[in-house]
DNA sequence: CGCGACGTTGATTTGCCTCAACGATTGTGG
DNA sequence: CCACAATCGTTGAGGCAAATCAACGTCGCG
């Protein structure tokens, strides 16, 4: 299957596997297709899967006490998504994980991941590396949120990730960047005026 | 040395080492003592070390374009600190890493860490686990910053980490929580009034 | 065609910042 | 051991970035 091939290539960029190891790895994977707006994780239920996005776009978000949605992570092809705290500690989720558009995922379930790590310790290295990169990403985002204004965060986002705003409705982008939909809307219009 | 013993115990909680592996590990470590206000990392220089805090308290912070300090991470004994992006990619730092009080650190330099990973692959597992936890922590902090008010973040912080506010001056706490010193000060006083 | 999802716009409000001045505490050199 | 200067916290006045509220336009889809 092409979905499995793609993630095999992804893994091969970081560690070298024997054909047997590749086969074993493939055997623990599972492909899932989700429709736009469908949720694969909900608060209160333990999150079973770490999801590699083959195609599509997903997001994880929290519904606050005030009823507002706050997007924790926006993720597109060749990236990952899950309720991270729920997945690694196997505790009830606090987030929704939802398809922003029709998507195809490759899923790792938690128990198989543990078995895989025992059987093929090279995967420790694989997960170390991708976790380090994800952490470095979150460090950068944290700094942006602490030190930049709403407008600067928006500008930074569209220049760093020009593909995402094309796929994602603005109310989601706004909730990811930590501002209201209305404010993002006025920012975008001021922007057009300033540029001309 | 007791500093080395402590980190050996820390490691032993996650992986089992042979005596030879323990000795090799100890040989790549280095103990550093830093005085309050001393910086061990500065913008523009590549960050050489990952630091385990034996005793003391450290922080990493960014000086924004406006000249304001934004504390990325506050860390005390038995935790870690570094300019993460600088360390793992070995690129020039953007942060200061400073001692909040006199501290004793156990330092891993980047090159030795790579050699250690080759020589003793079990450490892949060790770093995977601590990186996962750190990432989970950042996910939670991200959500707090997106969904909570300044007052709620302060309340959460003092109940979760009651030890830290005792060690850390308020202007640092404020810059960690993403608010001004003055505002944190008024929050604390309103709080006293409301409780009585 | 009609409804729901999404984006926009303007008026008003507010959480938090900035600025400025003033105590309190700490530490340091003479 | 004291005097003086930093460093740190507090308080209040005023201001601004961004939220909220409300109403309306538009598009896509069942």
List keywords for this structure.
homodimer; 196 residues; alpha+beta; six-stranded antiparallel sheet; 24% strand; DNA-binding
Count of separate DSSP helical elements of chain A: 9
What summary fits the major beta sheet of chain A?
A: 6 strands, antiparallel
Number of strands of chain A: 6
Distance between the termini of chain A: 49 Å
Explained architecture:
The structure is a homodimer of 196-residue chains. In chain A, 52% of the residues lie in helices and 24% in strands. The longest helix of chain A has 26 residues, at 122-147. In chain A, strand 3 and strand 4 form a beta hairpin. In chain A, strands 1, 2, 3, 4, 5 and 6 form a six-stranded antiparallel sheet that branches. With 196 residues, the first copy, chain A, is an alpha+beta fold. The first copy, chain A, has helices at residues 2-12, 19-28, 84-89, 110-119, 122-147, 150-160, 164-167, 170-177, 181-195, and strands spanning 29-34, 39-41, 49-63, 69-76, 80-81, 96-109. Chain A is built from nine helices and six strands. In chain A, helix 8 (170-177) packs across helix 9 (181-195). Chains A and B meet through strand 4, helix 3 and helix 5 of A and strand 4, helix 3 and helix 5 of B. Chain B binds a DNA duplex (30 and 30 nucleotides) through helix 9.
Condensed summary:
Chain A has 196 residues and is an alpha+beta fold.
């Amino acid at each position: 299957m092409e979905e499995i091939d793609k993630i095999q290539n992804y893994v091969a960029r970081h560690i070298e596997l024997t054909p047997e190891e590749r086969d074993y790895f493939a055997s623990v994977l599972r492909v899932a297709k989700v429709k736009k707006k469908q949720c694969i994780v909900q608060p209160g239920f333990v999150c079973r899967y770490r999801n590699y996005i083959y195609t599509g776009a997903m997001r994880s978000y929290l519904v606050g006490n005030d009823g507002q949605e706050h997007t924790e992570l926006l993720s597109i092809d060749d990236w990952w998504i899950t309720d991270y705290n729920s997945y690694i500690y196997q505790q009830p989720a606090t987030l929704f994980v939802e398809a922003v558009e029709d998507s195809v995922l490759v899923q790792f379930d938690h128990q198989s991941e543990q078995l895989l790590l025992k059987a093929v310790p090279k995967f420790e290295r694989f997960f170390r590396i991708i976790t380090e990169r994800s952490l470095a990403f979150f460090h950068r985002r944290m700094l942006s949120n602490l030190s930049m204004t709403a407008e600067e965060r928006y500008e930074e986002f569209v220049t760093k990730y020009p593909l995402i705003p094309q796929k994602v409705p603005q109310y989601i982008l706004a909730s990811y960047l930590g501002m209201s939909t209305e404010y993002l809307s006025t920012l975008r219009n001021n922007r057009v005026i300033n540029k001309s």
